[in-house]
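This entry is listed as follows:

___
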Amino acid sequence: MNRFAFFILLLGMGVGLIAQENAAGISFQQGEFQAMLDKAKAENKLIFMDVYTTWCGPCKMLDRNTFSDAQVGSKFNASFVNYKLDAEKGEGIAIARKYAVRAYPNMLFINGQGEVVHRVVGYRPPEELLKEGDAAAQKAATMKPLSWFDENYAAKKTDKSFMQAYATQLKIANKDNSKVLGEYLALLSPEEKVAEPAVKLAADNLSQLEGPAYELLAGIMRESSKHPRGVLQAAYSGLMQVKSSTFQKAVLNKDRKLLDKLIQVSKETDGPGAAAQIEQYELEFAKATGDLSMIRKSTEQKAETFMKYKKEELAKMDVEQYALFKRQALAEGVDTTAAQFKMMEDMMKNSASQGAAQELNNLAWSYVETMTDKADWTKALAWSARSLELDRDANYLDTYGNLLYKLGRKPEAIKIATEALEKANPEQREGFMETLDKMKKGTL
């Protein structure tokens, strides 16, 4: 099984979900979103809404490490109406679209009128989420309605503080703020533009691959050696999110021109990782448009690269990459006691092996989704088998089981699907159980 997603590894996002209640942590309410709005209004509280997907690794890390924390639970249960929303199911689809959720996890603090007061994108350890909660409460206490900004815009358009707040309020309301944001950036000196506060504002409010905010962030990435880590992280994050949303739009509309524009942006801003990113764009676009020849070409070239590495070679690469990671952290004075560093450290201990396993599984799953020929499925089965040699993950087992079934090897498929179900996380079980049931009935 695979879901195509963009993750910000450079920012320390990590790879269990979803308990409606954690014994010592946040207790999430159940029901429809309107009921949460009514409750928030009646109790004069903000809604804390965690918008997630079942395939999002950092979302699961939030559940495991942050939402289960006793201090976080005590604070959030007392201060907010806590609510979880699956962005790909039921009313979650429309609500995620309404609030312009483009990356996961996406945590929103919303008042009883349905206005977003504060937004947090990406994994946060407990101590940082507590700070975000305080920031949301402070904003709610001082927040002016958008109508006030509209009324005062003409008189205050040269006021940096006003224009900064206005751009943010427009984004929160899911309105086009590119004009106001551009006007704000034009008020800044060259030094102020590339300072972290302005770059973060541009990154948080970027909505398209053009305009002053985009040019600022793209310029920073093109000259990355001139800027400090915090500025680079903010620029990378903003560009990543808008590239993700642009790609989704290109796929949805089967818009080749938009994809070509995105590919050009990737060449300019993704550095050494551009080639791999462009390859992924091409593959996913080919899948969306049904271009089987392009899928075969792209997929099989990539699979060949990963299949050539033996398990022992990948284990050696794990050691080397982990050592390099430790040396770089030491040289840059990174806080090695921080929760995000510890999470990244765990990931880097077997990054080559895990990366190869994930890539091979993704490639195999793409053939499950798109191909109808047994010769294609046989090739994919070999890729899937190699992924299981590296990591017997529930998702990878699910892929292998699906391929076995397609190849007419039903008893083997059922055995593998049973193992996948046994290893599945709670949020995976329903889908895996359905797959197993269909295999047994011969209706998959």
About this structure: Confidence is low (pLDDT under 50) at residues 2-22. The chain has three domains: 9-142, 146-286, 304-441. DSSP finds 22 helices and four strands in the chain.
